[in-house]
Amino acid sequence: MTKHINLQKNYTEFSGGYQLKLPLNIETIIPENDSVRLLSQFVEEMDLTDLYSTYERINSLSPRTLLKIVLYSYMNGDYSSRSMELNCKRDINFMFLLEGHSAPDHATLARFRSIHFAPCSKRILAEVSNLLFDLGEISGETIFIDGTKIEANANKYTFVWKKTVTKNQAKLLIKLADFVAECEQLYDIKIVYGDTVKIKHLKKLRKKLYALKEKECITFVHGIGKRKTPLQKSIEVLEEYLSKLKEYTQKIHVCGERNSYSKTDNDATFMRMKEDAMGNGQLKPAFNLQHGVDSEYITWLTIGPQPTDTTTLIPFLKEAEQHLKFKYKNITADSGYESEENYLFLEENEQLAFIKPANYEISKTRKYKNDIGKIENMDYDEISDFYICKNNKKLTVDHVKHSKSKTGYVSEKTIYKCEDCTGCLYRKECIKGNNCKTPLEERTKVLQVSKAFIKYRKEDLERIVSDEGALYRMNRSIQAEGSFGDLKQDMQFRRYLSKGTSNVLAESILLAIARNINKLHNKIQNKKTGTHLFPLKSA
């Protein structure tokens, strides 16, 4: 028997013989302990004045609802705006968040992230952290800081190295000096009245060459079989040089204090990435993501171009103090954050450093303890200010030098020099450095000592080895490093989808808030709310 089916757009015409199904209310279908209910309640309690201020006109779907949709999608490891749009049409939990409104377009969701959320992302993260603090979920006393590198949305083969560009620019300036001198002699003009050729001289030369073209009524020719005049050749070479010089200047400007950047995302810096368990990796455009974790919640984060973590601590703490309603007393971090500048900042800011010294692990080894060239293995006379080596010779103060870091911090180092190394039996074990051009027999033992750094490291080490320090160090490895494990493994986020520091920061904050709500949900369900630290295991 042949069935007659009407091929038409309205598919509801085919459901005429079926009974309407219940329940119609979405509220009754979603479980009472579903995380979507917690998310909705949490966002409703947030002050989103800054987010609403980015809108001139609000349509039927409010910014609060859009924030709920984006966050819930991130909570489930889905970061595509098109996927969010599809879920709003098919997924009952997303329909619950929509509260009867029609599904937003994917372009609306993309604009929400980049245009509206990004400018106020830091203030929204602060609002989340402050709300968790009011709920008693975070301590507000101890923060665990760690960093990781996440690949940027950029082509990994579009290298621009500052060192290479600077070298090519220097070569070009030499060529320009010869070219200008040649033009001065060829056309009987004077441009440069010094030793250095600058851009203003090139522009002046170009102006005079074009004036000469107009005066002599020279017509430029192009194509095969046409003979160019010497003036046309000179102007074309000059234009090429100017274009190249402008390109080099622009690239150096984009680099700024960085050593590299990507052409497809100028804010991304090339960094060494860890690709496998053996630590083998390659240079890729990436961002340095810093997490500050308290009670398993990400309370603050920053995005930067720094390939190392040392210079990220101070900006991180300054921003956190500026946005959060509480100030952390204890700062716990790994050895990558140790520096004299960081120690001094924490002391002046009335914060305690629980930073693992860079030599903490190696200092326990027998080889380190038996190294007679190490300052830690020499006797020191604090009153007379000198060291005594293995050969019972004094290392006295020779001079004091000051050095300035990239951040502008000026450190003071005292240079100690041995009084006499002639005929010393321990010279080979004491004096290091095989690349020195001076023969070992003619060299003298020299120590560079930063007294301030030694003082800070000693005080920090006492805190680290205490029971409190051991507790914080264990929690740092669990909580701070655990937050990156959640992002990369559980949430499968390994590469940014957007470009530019502002959008990348917004992505990172959305991920952090989504993870925090997931963490709050798990703590509530497992009855672990209000816990801040994991206890040390007793033997």
Description:
With 539 residues, the protein is an alpha+beta fold. It folds into 4 domains: 22-135, no CATH class; 161-262, no CATH class; 287-358 and 461-525, no CATH class; 362-455, no CATH class. It is 43% helix and 14% strand. It has 17 helices and 13 strands. It has helices at residues 35-44, 49-52, 63-75, 81-90, 92-98, 106-117, 121-134, 162-187, 199-216, 230-255, 313-323, 340-348, 366-369, 427-430, 451-464, 467-490, 501-525; strands at residues 142-151, 159-161, 260-262, 269-272, 283-294, 297-304, 330-333, 352-355, 379-381, 386-388, 394-404, 410-418, 446-449. Strands 1, 4, 5, 6, 7 and 8 form a 6-stranded mixed beta sheet that branches. A hairpin with a 5-residue loop joins β10 (386-388) and β11 (394-404). The longest helix has 26 residues, at 162-187. The protein is flat.
